[in-house]
Amino acid sequence: MSKSVESREFHAQTQKLLDLMIHSVYSEKEVFLRELISNASDAIDKIRFLAQTDEQLAKGDHNYKIKLIPDASASTLTITDNGIGMSFDEVVENLGTIARSGTEAFLEELKNADGAEVTPDLIGRFGLGFYSAFMVADSVDVKTYKSGEEHAVHWVSQGDGTYTVERIDPVERGTQITLSLKANTVENEDEASTPDAEDDFASDWKLRSIVKKHSDFVRWPIVMNVEKTEYPDKEDGEGKDFEAEPKRWMEEEVLNSQTALWTREKDSISEEDYHGFYKSLTHDWNAPAAHLHFKVEGMREYTALMYLPEKAPSDLYTRESRRGLSLYVKNVFIMEDCRELMPEYLRFIRGLIDSPDLPLNVSREMVQQDRVIQSMRKMLTKKWLSHFSSMIKADREAYEKVWIEFGAAIKEGYHYDSKNQDKLSEIALWQSTHAAGSWTTLAEYVERIKEGQDSIYVLSGKNIDTLREAPQLEVFTKKGIEVLLLADHVDEFVLGELSEFGEFKLVDISRGEVDLSAIDSDDDAKDDEEEDTTTLASLCDHLNSTLELPIESVRASTRLTDSAVCLVTPGDAPSPQMERMMRAMGQEMPPIKRTLELNPKHALIQKLQALHEKDAEDSRIGEYGELLYAQALLSEGGQLENPARFAKKMASVMAASID
Question: pLDDT tens digit string along 545-561?
């Protein structure tokens, strides 16, 4: 057939990753083999599954395996599989670009890391996969053939910014990857330099040790031709004659155990085994934070092996992120990322479920409606919520680390899973004004509640530092009343679902009027507040009638002690955070008119009141009112509609004060 070789450039972000792979100082280069073996295993899983409904795809070749072919004399390592293979378009898509939203996040994290090392943690969290081959190879050559395609595909790159791809005559089904190893990663007798034995990736023993360490639990045989030696017997029949010329031959040897770990008794499985299987399953370098392994028997029968990662993946909050557990039926792989097995808010849980109660030909559509799956989902959710509840009591420090990584996702359960709201409230952690940097549960908050207090007070905002300085907190801080600080992007939705905890209602202190009289019944203070309100009445009326701002009204404040002003949201209106989120999602919303509160005790407000009493028509009153509104908006992390106008007015006021 006529061949047309196309030369193409890598996607810009892919090239950056390749540069990092090629030039980084990386001490664990062997991870590349784990990645390539895992990809090969996935390819075999896919062909085996598809062949159940279309036998022509397998064409009678059911002897699935992954083969390693080291060649020290040629300085190459070849990895082959007889899996699904790739079409031309799939090669370009999978090998020419990184179709993954975490690419930017990876580059940003590496840029912020100390030194130039690509760490194992980053490899695992961001799934560099195929591209890790360039850590040990000067060039990578891929030949692949997908059953049913007219042509095979040949792809080659030196990692220099370009690659070539061409259609070639069909070869055996599957994929062959040949790495031309770098000079310091292969021991070659013809070369003057000899690598460290730890980096000799054309060595039989080195490859054997890597497979045992990283890929022992891969369910398909990983094979390699190894040299066998046999000495003849002595003439007298007394043992072997080691001085004679031995018989030598090559024999294919299986390097991995292929054990389905989840089918073994828990007592026979070590923590090292659990961790090794997790890393093989997820490509994560870190050990998991926790795992659950159990078997359910009775009306429903299945085995579950699930893991809680130590770190959140970079794409946890994107639509493209991996969700769900792998599904097996009678130890046969059916599908990965079965979303129906776990609720959306526990999408970070990894692992698998193996059940004999489902048919081998179960489809994704059938899974969505299957009662067995729904029953499993309910039980798996219960198991994890119970585990988190136990973890809080048994190891609070470890659980707080888990919450920092996954807490925002777990809180989505308030929206998705109302039936488990009480359980979620048991395990949810919140920051508060009680102690900076510490976490509290709702139950712990209630234990510290003040006499006469009938509400749990909360304040939501863009970030925790801004919230701690929020003017709305001032009266609560003065009276020693604890306030929960909600800075996660999902907290606005949580407040819409979580209205009370036990007998206590959740009250947003940035809304409506503040009445703390039941907690602190100081009659003199109440009289002072009423007097202050009366004193500022005329100034507030003036500003209400003259200010052309998106505010509902101006009034005297009972919540401020140090700040001059703050903004308060009407009780039934969306918060500013919710308004920003909805607009970011493309939802048009009318601007929310809020109330501007003035602190009668603040020197600035008192001087403004005096100016108004002296000359109610003074134009500066309106200008100062506009600046006060801008100050209140900025203090809560808001954005000015016209920053240039604010800057000019501020400069004018500063110039006048200097005179």
Answer: 999 888 999 999 989 99
Residue 572, domain CATH: 1.20.120.790
Q: Is the pLDDT of residue 319 over 80?
A: no
Distances (CA, A) of 200 to 20, 177, 402: 21, 18, 38
* Rounded distance between C-alpha atoms, residue 96 and residue 94, angstroms: 6
Specify if 443 maps to a domain: yes
Whether residue 457 has pLDDT greater than 60: yes
pLDDT in tens, 472-514: 999 999 999 999 999 998 998 898 899 999 999 999 999 888 8
- The three-state secondary structure class of 99 is coil
Q: How far, in Å, CA of 521 to CA of 242, rounded? A: 100
pLDDT at 112: 59
Report the C-alpha gap between 370 and 366 in whole angstroms.
Answer: 6
Q: In this structure, what are the phi and psi dihedrals at residue 541, rounded to the nearest 5 degrees? A: -60, -40
Q: Tell which of 362, 390, 418 closes a domain.
A: 390
Mean pLDDT confidence for 616-636: 91
| Local structure of residue 337 (DSSP, 8 states) | E
**First vs last Cα of the chain: how many Å apart?**
88
**Structural domain contains residue 515:** no
Do 383 and 405 fall within a single domain?
no
Element (DSSP H or E) covering residue 230: strand 222-230
> pLDDT tens for residues 570-624?
877 777 777 777 776 777 777 788 999 999 999 999 999 999 999 999 989 999 9
| DSSP per-residue string spanning 623-640 | HHHHHHHHHHHHHTT---
Q: What would the two tokens of residue 157 be?
A: 């790159």
Residue 482 per-residue DSSP state: -
CA within 13 Å, CB half, 48: 21
Q: Does one domain contain both 381 and 456?
A: no
CA count, 13 A, side-chain hemisphere, 647 = 4
DSSP 3-state of 409: helix
Asked if 633 contacts 466 with a C-beta cutoff of 8 angstroms, the reply is no
